[in-house]
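for ur thesis appendix - Vacuolar protein sorting-associated protein 53 homolog. copy paste whatever u need, i formatted it the way the template wanted (i think)
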Amino acid sequence: QALEEAQKAIQQLFGKIKDIKDKAEKSEQMVKEITRDIKQLDHAKRHLTTSITTLNHLHMLAGGVDSLEAMTRRRQYGEVANLLQGVVNVLEHFNKYMGIPQIRQLSERVKAAQNELGQQILADFEEAFPSQGTKRPGGPSNVLRDACLVANVLDPRIKQEIIKKFIKQHLSEYLVLFQENQDVAWLDKIDRRYAWIKRQLVDYEEKYGRMFPQEWCMTERIAVEFCHVTRAELSKIMRTRAKEIEVKLLLFAIQRTTNFEGFLAKRFSGCTLADGTGKKPEVPPPSTNPFLEDETGTETDEIVIEKSDTDKPKKPKVPDNPFHGIVSKCFEPHLYVYIESQDKNLGELIDRFVADFKAQGPPKPNVDEGGAVLPSCADLFVYYKKCMVQCSQLSTGEPMIALTTIFQKYLREYAWKILSGNLPKTTSSSGGLTITSLLKEKEGSEVAKFTLEELCLICSILSTAEYCLATTQQLEEKLKEKVDASLVERINLTGEMDTFSIVISNSIQLLVQDLDAACDPALTAMSKMQWQNVEHVGDQSPYVTSVILHIKQNVPIIRDNLASTRKYFTQFCIKFANSFIPKFINHLFKCKPISMVGAEQLLLDTHSLKMVLLDLPSIGSQVVRKAPASYTKIVVKGMTRAEMILKVVMAPHEPPVVFVDNYIKLLGDCSTDTFQKILDMKGLKRSEQSSMLDLFRLRLPAPPPGGDNPGSLSLSAPTPEQESSRIRKLEKLIKKRL
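the 3d part is after this line
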């Protein structure tokens, strides 16, 4: 019974579940039906909205097209300008409906209306501004002003055609007035061209300034087209009458033209130069030349050499004149006339420098200003600066390269004619003596000593060459800044700088040669003295006094006149030491035989000369400066060798082994020739010398692998540490001896 009741309960439960399931299915179906209706309503609403909007647009388009066609026929351009833009905007909404015949027909009607408007507006402008005939309108037209507003909406070609025709008609009178066969067309009356366009621009603004939209920049377009026409006309007439172009005429025309281009830059922005109605003129590359701000300065401005200029980072200066070269570019093919003129002028300038130097003589030394520099070099570089600035204003292309070639030519001529050509000549031989032969040492020849004026002249030429060298380097930098970037590699004044370096070297060598030759008689007297007969050591010998006298006569003059170029005075000291010391040692070897007392006297003389040479850079000066280390090292090394030679001579030659070992240790010279000279100085007999030489060869250090034979062997160059140590040891020996 309980089981039956449970089964009944289960059956009832299943029945309820089934009812619930049926109700759920009905509810689901009901929801679907409701939702389906809502979706249909949403689609209907969206389609209806789109249809209404499209119909409104279609109504607007149809009405707009009708109105547009009617207004076009009545030339109501003011209303058309506003309506046409709206019609075009509405038509864009129908791009996806072009498959519908009616829509496509409306689109074709709009395009037809636009074409008709374009042709009609062009016809109206042609009627108002005929390209042929003398008819000129009395003033602006409101119809044409509105037509320009319509042209802004139409195809851009319509606007360009209007601008082109108007400008062509506006400049037609210019082409007639300044035809090639007219007298006013030549360069000497180029001012009249620019005066004419200025009047036309004023006339345009008064009559037609309000007719064209301001964004069309018609005033600037007229000026730009005038520049293009003028450039073409000037190019044509200059090709025809090229033989009549003179330098003054060419520069006059270029100056007036660049002034006009500057006027355009102040008046207009140059916004029309990049569009299709005109070609943008070539603009010079950015320049870092600090001279740009001083290009209108006087001719007496000199190229100032400032190291700080080269150290500072250079900021390119953007050209502020977009109209630069728009007309003046036509003169570039004819700038050869200017270049030839500068060639001639520089040739005359060099000849004048030569004549002035002969007439006035060498300049007086001016120690207060650090030495006398020839004034002609400043004049030359001032003229160079003037030419460079002037030419860069005319062109930054090939003419600048041609001008650089002219500069190079006359820098070399100045170096040889003015500087090298005026270096003093010696009178020791026949005329025609050149610097090359002068600088060749002829032992035993008598060389006349330079006078004070000649020494000052050599120093003046050296200072001038140094100034020219530095300024030429700066000139090269400025030329590279001025020229086009593609031509920079062709600017190279290294050869000319080398020429001035040669003049400097020759001048220093002349000063060394003069002082060296003045000391020769004293050294000759030293070698001829009977040193074996010297009985006692006294003060320094007369020949030392003579050498010191010549040094005290020459060196202060040279130092004072080279005060502004200390490095070259140091070079002079170094070259003199390198010349005098080997010559002194050679004469020392000629002093034979030498007694012990004679060797001591020579050692004293050598030490005196060493002290004088160490003091050479500041000798006779109230301000004592420490000699440069490079110079001191040369003197100490050379004169210490001379002292060591005498020390070896003073040493006893018995026993021979000790003598040979001391020689190798003190002199470090493995040459048998030097050893032979030492033996000659000691006055040994040939038999003794022979045994000594054999012993010397045996005691020589072993040569390095792959070295030469011992007979011609010289010790390899010592390291700086070895050299320093050796010098210190020798100095201690000398101090101990003295």
